[in-house]
Amino acid sequence: MFKGLYVDKPESVVVLEEQEADLQANQVRIQTEFAAIKHGTEFHLFSGKSPHAEQRFDADLRLFVPVSEQERSQASGRRSSVGNMAVGCVIEIGKAVTKVKPGDRVYCYGPAWELLTKEETDVEPLFEPMSPQDAVCLDPALYAFTAVRDARARLGDTAVVFGLGAIGLFVVQMLKMSGCLHVVAVDPIEKRRTLAERYGANLTLDPTQCDVGLEVRKVLGQGADIAIEASGHYKALSGAMRAVRNCGRIVTLGYYKGRDSELELGAEWHHNRLELIGSMPVWDNPLRDYPLWDNERISRTLIELFRQKRLISDGIVDPIVDFEDAAAAFLAIYRNPANAIKLGIRF
């Protein structure tokens, strides 16, 4: 038996016991040491207000379609696991496994469970100098990497980043790495703004205390070339439209909640002829640079950037709590995110 973290109903997270399944020939059993959650997506689903609450995404039509009564009935009471990536030690392997052996440290996508059973192809060895914190940050780094490439950030550009969660903080690092001359980082949480400054942001702004569009123009003399919106809030998307110059480029990667849009499309959007780009490297979306860049190449690149310490996870996985305290920490951060960036769970 092992314990795992689950959502059993909207705004309720619990620890439940599970029985491990028989190990198949191509599978690996992992004793989890460290895990992390994906704040934007998991909190969105946790709220019960995501598009998936009343609709489902039809992969063939590429559309959200209404959920039938039968599907709704089947989904009611269904629990979902909490957690996004995990690091652990291999304790058992199937007879056909050759990639890893018992005792190896590995990382993978997976929930916050004490034991994980994964296909051999879904786990990767954890080699120094990558840390467990680096490994669980590969997912937000993937989204940040794709967004910066979609933004076509170039040497000398100016940029504004809205939302300084894990993804936004990696966006700041990557924009500076891309040669952006001036990066403005925007978030209402002081702790996140402070970390963005450590990562190279030239200016940080609290959007609840100023008009970001005006402040950017005071500093730059005009709007920024690029805005990357990583918060998933409609007000932030409106702010991004106000923060860029005419013909500026806005890239979105936040998971927007609710249906009450704050967008004023008759203002800057219309008059400045802005470009809006949706950035999503999963859900069967090919990368815009495909086939030169595919997910395998991005993954190799991100691993090397972490190994070279050109990407830094220090400070992003915060707070880190013991598994026994994870449910309470999850709820506390959901209700008040001011003291958190990305929840890490220690086993």
Automatic annotation (TrEMBL):
It comes from the Bacteria. InterPro entries: ADH-like_C (IPR013149), GroES-like_sf (IPR011032), NAD(P)-bd_dom_sf (IPR036291). The keyword Signal does not apply. Residues 166-279 form the Alcohol dehydrogenase-like C-terminal domain. Pfam families: ADH_zinc_N (PF00107). Belongs to the zinc-containing alcohol dehydrogenase family. PANTHER family: D-GULOSIDE 3-DEHYDROGENASE, NAD-DEPENDENT ALCOHOL DEHYDROGENASE. This is Alcohol dehydrogenase.
